[in-house]
Amino acid sequence: MSIETLKSYLPENALSFLKIWFADYPIHIKITRNRNSKLGDYRKMPDQSHQITINSTLEPDLFFFVLTHELAHLIAFEKFGRRISAHGNEWKTTFAQMILESLDIYPQDLQLILKRFSKSPKANFMSSSDLVRYFHFDQLKDDEVFMESLQIGDRFMYREDAYKVEEKRKKLYLCINSTNAKKYLFKPLAKVQKV
């Protein structure tokens, strides 16, 4: 992929950071169709080059954030060796430094969220309720709510099954399935339909 093609997916002024971060590495970036299971992916190829895939449907700020996440894998593995944990301390430190280094390209309200996030980066941005709200809040359908907006005893639908909120456990919600009486844990930002 040419740098000009990549530029069309990025926020303004992001390219200068990528030129620094890409510097010494042979990288192939593939823009993919939307994948529900992941936003991006990093792999070291058999020929020792690096491949990063990123969903084409991401808005520029999220695209750059995901690309930074994946590049942090490459840089951490190259700097500390292949035996480090994929989302261990070396990756967290690398990712946090890259976020803070490039902070000015993001809108001010997102900068505040990213500063907090960089103190302890998560492997999956879905684990950061602030980031999920920032990037996805307006994508709720008319009949959807986030799990965190429900109260104990509320009933809701999730994937055509009915549930009742039993209790909140730290950050997760323990819920009982109305059909089979099994208990399930839901994340605060799971999208459900309140009934």
UniProtKB/TrEMBL annotation:
Species the sequence originates in: Soonwooa buanensis
Highest taxon, organism lineage: Bacteria
Protein name: SprT-like family protein
Record domain SprT-like: where: 48-98
Name of one Pfam family that matches: SprT-like
GO terms under biological process: response to stress
